[in-house]
Write a structure and sequence with these properties.
Largest sheet of chain B: 6 strands, mixed
Distance between the termini of chain B: 31 Å
Strand order of the largest sheet of chain B: 6-7-8-3-9-10
Bound molecules: adenosine-5'-triphosphate, magnesium ion
Strand content of chain A: 5-15%
Radius of gyration of chain A: 29 Å
Low-confidence stretches of chain A: none
Mean pLDDT of chain A: 91
Structural class of chain B: alpha/beta
Order of helices and strands of chain A: HEEEEEEHHHHHHHH
Oligomer: heterodimer
Structural class of chain A: alpha+beta
CATH topology of one domain in chain A: MetI-like fold
Shape of chain B: globular
Largest sheet of chain A: 4 strands, antiparallel
Helix content of chain B: 25-40%
CATH class of one domain in chain A: Mainly Alpha
Chain lengths: 319, 244
Amino acid sequence: MKATGQTWPWRILLAVILIGMAAAIWGAAKTIDYEWRWYRVPQYFFYEAEDLKKAPFDSVVSAIEKKNTTTAVTLTSESGEKAVLEIDSDSLKVDAQDELFMGDTVGLTSHWKMGPLMTGMWTTIWISFISGVLGLIIGLATGLARISKNYTVSGLAIAYIEFIRGTPLLVQIFIAYFFVGTVFNLSRNVAGIGALALFAGAYVAEIVRAGIQSISRGQMEAARSLGMTVPQAMLDVILPQALKRILPPLSGQFISLIKDSSLVSVIAITDLTKSGREIITSTFATFEVWLVVAAMYLVITSVLSQLVFYMERRFAVSD
Amino acid sequence: MIRAENVKRIFTGRGVTVRAVDGVSTQVAKGEVVVVIGPSGSGKSTFLRCINGLEIFDSGHIYIDGVDLADKKTNLNKIRAEVGMVFQQFNLFPHKTVIENLTLAQIRVRKRSREVAEIKARQLLTKVGISEKEQEYPSRLSGGQQQRVAIARALAMDPKIMLFDEPTSALDPEMVGEVLDVMKQLAREGMTMVVVTHEMGFAREVADRVIFMDQGKVVEVGTPEHFFTSPQEERTKLFLKQVL
Ligand SMILES: Nc1ncnc2c1ncn2[C@@H]1O[C@H](COP(=O)(O)OP(=O)(O)OP(=O)(O)O)[C@@H](O)[C@H]1O
Ligand SMILES: [Mg+2]
């Protein structure tokens, strides 16, 4: 604990190095001929969408009633049919008693919508989440199968784990989509999530196996000596202890999964990475967009890290 | 209550064969306290573990209340619930509080309600003298306290038989007494007990019978007086000379 008082020189050094690196990158960026257009990025997070409100039939503007920011326009047709349109006040295009044809614009309403960066991030989150949960279930089952005394069961588990760990995820995604997906007529989302879940499952299985085997044999024996069955002992005694121990490697695996999910963009799932690529084709703001995309992945993964950190602290009470 | 007939447990592996239990026959009557002694590796633990089916023996028979463990139709889980076991390393569940350690199997195996299980647990914790620690986690307890909780945990299942495998060997010397006291009290209350131990004082005081094992075989059986005054076998004499 002696060192605590002495950390400030190292903190300053760290800050100096980081600032130096930032300056170097900045300087390097200056030397190339690139026009930074950061102002183009925000609209891809959120943008104001405008909805044109049009006359549903030939009619006359029979009343205009202004409320604060919106205006209610009442249209009456010759046959006495009525329609009330709510529009933004400043977009009002008609006056009272104007004659309108069907399809004429009366005004518009506007509201904020998520841009492609946000929808992409959302896709990345839910794809990672679903494949993470499925991967956890698959991994738990496979991890248990892996340590089964039954040769067939453990053999199947080993074959699955070896296949997944010995081939690139990108290739697995292609196989899942183009081969398995064609045979079983799977949508790209199902194929993508399936590939990610199977991929995560194999790694989770090894983590689970190691976690279970790290619990001393005495725990299983004590539980069995009390008359508990193997499944009961697993569920109540071994797994809770193993889970606590595998939480750090497991969270590392899920963080990897979030990052690896960017590979599903190759089968045209519009995740964060694919959104980034699409935005670049229309803005040419290549540097900005990739930097922003990286930052967004960083936000997701660090939120997860924090969550795990919090859970670890909760679990630590029995130590 | 317990009848063992020519029980054998032979480990084979990596070219070596270990005859851990090599034809043990013995009987333990209801309420009897039997102490098993013998040098390290003589098969004491293995035999004890055979009695509650933790170790599946290769041949022979063990009858618990007339039920044959070697019979394929015997439900070993049911037997284990009736035969409590206390381990050298305590083996408490570290992720559960003391009281949860005592209630878990009651609820899961005996299908008691939580309330009933907790009442039972508190009675037993009082009995072993650690009622004030019921909400602690095992890691906060001393070795002696942990072993007493482990005894209480086994008792919570209302076992007919209690097996002890060197319950005091992992304890600091000053804590051995508190655990032995609990065991002595159990013996006085008429519990059927099989105790593997190196505590000769305990054997002398509470054992009805002592079994000396060596190399997987029962070498000599007798009362404590017999053992400590006039052992017959050479191997027994040699062993006793070393431990006394
Ligand atoms: N699972 C096993 N696999 C292989 N050999 C084993 C196994 N369990 C025990 N043995 C061997 O069987 C023999 C008897 O072991 P056991 O633990 O029953 O002896 P013990 O009398 O309890 O000794 P100790 O006083 O050291 O506890 C030893 O040689 C041991 O190495
Ligand atoms: Mg032993």
